[in-house]
Automatic annotation (TrEMBL):
<dbReference type="InterPro" id="IPR050837">
    <property type="entry name" value="ComplexI_51kDa_subunit"/>
</dbReference>
<feature type="region of interest" description="Disordered">
    <location>
        <begin position="513"/>
        <end position="538"/>
    </location>
</feature>
<dbReference type="InterPro" id="IPR019575">
    <property type="entry name" value="Nuop51_4Fe4S-bd"/>
</dbReference>
<keyword id="KW-0408">Iron</keyword>
<dbReference type="Pfam" id="PF10589">
    <property type="entry name" value="NADH_4Fe-4S"/>
</dbReference>
<keyword id="KW-0411">Iron-sulfur</keyword>
<keyword id="KW-0004">4Fe-4S</keyword>
<protein>
    <submittedName>
        <fullName>Oxidoreductase</fullName>
    </submittedName>
</protein>
<keyword id="KW-0285">Flavoprotein</keyword>
<dbReference type="Pfam" id="PF01512">
    <property type="entry name" value="Complex1_51K"/>
</dbReference>
<dbReference type="Pfam" id="PF13459">
    <property type="entry name" value="Fer4_15"/>
</dbReference>
<keyword id="KW-0479">Metal-binding</keyword>
<dbReference type="InterPro" id="IPR037207">
    <property type="entry name" value="Nuop51_4Fe4S-bd_sf"/>
</dbReference>
<dbReference type="InterPro" id="IPR011538">
    <property type="entry name" value="Nuo51_FMN-bd"/>
</dbReference>
<comment type="similarity">
    <text>Belongs to the complex I 51 kDa subunit family.</text>
</comment>
<dbReference type="GO" id="GO:0003954">
    <property type="term" value="F:NADH dehydrogenase activity"/>
</dbReference>
<dbReference type="GO" id="GO:0051539">
    <property type="term" value="F:4 iron, 4 sulfur cluster binding"/>
</dbReference>
């Protein structure tokens, strides 16, 4: 069983280290040690810096993979056109349970990240630098690094630099969420899509990228594009940081040159010789089967070509002894919980998709499979951020990758394997868990509560259906169509709110003692017949 990843897991390197240089000497490179290892760094002009990023084909390492030189030029052009100083933001909000590469960099090599960020700030004429983090360890390390450079609160520099600490949540890492929090709002997407390069922090053009991107820029600026290009593939030079977890003996962050076989990376971490599947790119990524993973190499282009995804650099194999659909259900339920709850695709679509997956696993048949596919299609390209799109991609990849297991569950009595919980997750509130059926693993399933309608009091106001659409639907007469129903754990707070706000006091919540019994089939939640399909529009 896979335990929760620590903030700083074991770090390995294949070939010569670049980002991880000095890690064999000290646990954390303070400023003097950083300069001894990497040497000084001279400022560069804006166009010179953009040409460097273009020559080394630097792309964002946070998942989207947008060309960094285009982002840099867009910010510069917008700042010149508007006559305002831009802002530089380092996104260290690494909140996916399977990712630790940025966290490792911030904890162990914070000055390498600051080198890249300060290069950009100097080139753009920015006077504000913000580093977004979500963990106590990363906050401490980055604040210490700013103090070592005399940049804390801008006391000894024209540049004002600070650390922005946000809650540990999947949507916190979205660029729009981080910008909104820096401006004093909640760390959730604002509901409208705007380009940070045009209007970001305080309405100013903002250069925002993740921690590894700025560190890679600092390496390229020191050694030059020729030496940088001597490592890795011709069209994707340099190294990448990967977080390898799941069914492995040694979860780790590993720096590898692009072009290294994926199977070699898995062997280093102690993955099964023939994994049942390998999740590439993390929980917004895609599954590869064992044969495909054995032929793939580590690069964005290679993984895309074989149906995988580099994404944020998370690699998670699973063994033959666990149910892959059950493992994916746990992730789907967690993704539904991580919704900001402010748009339909997240608020309704992702919980419905998780229930659809549970319905498949509990004998829902072909109708449940079609319903799940329909929900996944419906949530894409309709959300306030990329969370619904990434979650839908994960679900669609699961259905495509594990066809034999899917057939066993849809057409038979299941695959017969338990769910071992090898994919790391967080419980609500940011507490990590690797325990199957614990915390987040059951949040999408039935709770120990049932909600009841007292027909002698109900007056058909319909407020319950507005607050708790997962449970209540109104019939043609305007009254709820059910007298009692199980409450999914993710909706317990809403159920309580529905009880409190019912104008006729017609609702009540009671404990469901049946939920205390262990669910059948490998710790999967058992839904009442038709319940999941009705929530999916069936």
């Amino acid at each position: 069983m896979n335990e929760a990843l620590p903030d700083v897991p074991e770090v390995r390197v294949v070939g010569l280290p670049q980002l991880t240089s000095g890690f064999d000497l000290v646990e954390r490179l303070d400023l003097p040690m950083h300069l001894k290892v990497h040497g000084p760094l001279e400022p560069m002009g804006g166009e010179q810096l953009a040409r460097l990023a273009e020559r080394v084909a630097l792309r964002g390492r946070g998942g989207a993979g947008f060309p960094f030189h285009k982002k840099l030029r867009a910010v510069a052009e917008s700042a010149i056109k508007r006559g305002v100083r831009p802002v530089v933001v380092v996104n260290g909000s690494e909140d996916e349970p399977a990712c630790r590469k940025d966290t490792v960099l911030i904890n162990r090599a914070p000055h390498l990240i600051l080198d890249g960020a300060l290069l950009c700030a100097e080139a753009l004429g920015a006077r504000t630098l913000v580093v977004g983090v979500t963990r106590e360890s990363t906050q401490r390390s980055m604040e210490a690094a700013l103090a070592e450079r005399g940049l804390n609160n801008g006391r000894r520099s024209a540049l004002r630099a600070r650390v922005q600490r946000n809650p540990v949540r999947m949507v916190t890492g979205a660029a729009a969420s981080l910008i909104r929090s820096i401006d004093g709002g909640p760390a959730i997407p604002p509901g409208r899509k705007t380009s940070a390069s045009r209007s970001g922090v305080g309405g100013a053009p903002t250069l925002l990228s993740n921690a590894e991107t700025f560190a890679q820029l600092a390496i390229a600026a020191r050694i030059g594009p020729e030496r940088y290009g001597n490592t890795g593939l011709y069209d994707e030079p340099g190294t990448v940081l990967l977080t390898v977890s799941g069914a492995v003996a040694r979860p780790m962050v590993i720096e590898v040159p692009t072009g290294v076989p994926l199977r070699y990376v898995l062997q280093l971490a102690g993955a099964p010789p023939v994994p049942q599947g390998v999740l590439t790119g993390g929980y917004h990524g895609k599954w590869l089967d064992a044969a495909t993973a054995g032929e793939a190499v580590v690069s964005r282009g290679s993984l895309d070509a074989v149906g995988g995804s580099l994404g944020a650099g998370a690699i998670l194999p699973i063994g033959q002894e666990t149910c892959p659909l059950g493992e994916s259900l746990r992730v789907a339920q967690w993704l539904a919980e991580e919704s900001a709850g402010q748009c339909g695709p997240c608020y309704l679509g992702l919980p419905a998709a998780a229930r659809g997956m549970a319905d498949i696993l509990n004998g829902g048949g072909p109708a449940a499979l079609e319903a799940l596919k329909q929900v996944a299609r419906n949530v894409k390209r309709r959300g306030a951020c990329s969370h619904p799109d990434g979650s839908a991609m994960f679900l669609e990849s699961t259905v495509k990758a594990f066809t034999d297991d899917l057939a066993a569950h849809v057409l038979g009595n299941g695959c017969g394997r338990p769910v071992q919980g090898v994919l790391p997750l967080y419980e609500g509130g940011g507490t990590p868990t690797g325990v199957p059926g614990g915390g987040a693993a059951r949040e999408g399933g039935p709770s120990r509560q049932r909600i009841h309608v007292d027909w002698t009091l109900c007056r058909g106001h319909g407020l319950c259906a507005d607050i708790l659409p997962e449970v209540f639907q109104l019939g043609a007469d305007g009254f709820p169509t059910v007298a009692q129903a199980e409450v999914p754990r993710y909706a317990e707070a809403k159920a309580l709110r529905a009880v409190r706000r019912c104008p006729a006091l017609a609702l009540r919540i009671e404990e469901d003692n049946r939920a205390a019994q262990p669910p059948a089939r490998g710790d999967l939640p058992v839904l009442s017949p038709g319940r999941g399909r009705r929530a999916l529009g069936r």
